[in-house]
């Protein structure tokens, strides 16, 4: 399914066919520079690069970072999330993840666990990772990171597909929101219900 989506994007974005091979995704060689394709009158840039060392844009931050099926394929998924947080615009930027991992049912998770080593050896993917747990731990560890939404939309995949939207709060907005929260809490304590 991912190959179909990948090839569809390759065919429909002008210029992408020159930098994106028509076959399954493979790890990028470390010496290979990122490939950049501009579309929609240069308002959208698609960057093919290694997510763990992706390039910064000229403005040093992205409006949106979209990452698909990557937390299963890196050695340190929380580090990957931290890297994305460093390159997305504070407050207004978004990080969108489409991931797969442990699902709703223990019997299915048992099957994922049973074949995880073989699957990783063949595809480079740890399909049994607890994506929700990884994201929640990163939210606690990365300053300003906030999970806006986390959904498991596909019942046919038994909860193993996870959609995550995150943002990173700037320090000024964090302070302002904390002050507003504290002011609201102190105001509530003096209220008398009628």
Automatic annotation (TrEMBL):
Biased composition regions of type Basic and acidic residues, renumbered to the chain: 170-185
Domain of life according to the entry: Eukaryota
One Gene Ontology molecular-function label: methyltransferase activity
InterPro entries the record matches: Methyltransf_Superfamily, SAM-dependent_MTases_sf
Region named Disordered: 170-194
SUPFAM superfamilies, sorted: S-adenosyl-L-methionine-dependent methyltransferases
Pfam family, one: Methyltransf_23
Name of the protein: S-adenosyl-L-methionine-dependent methyltransferase
Organism annotation: Cladorrhinum samala
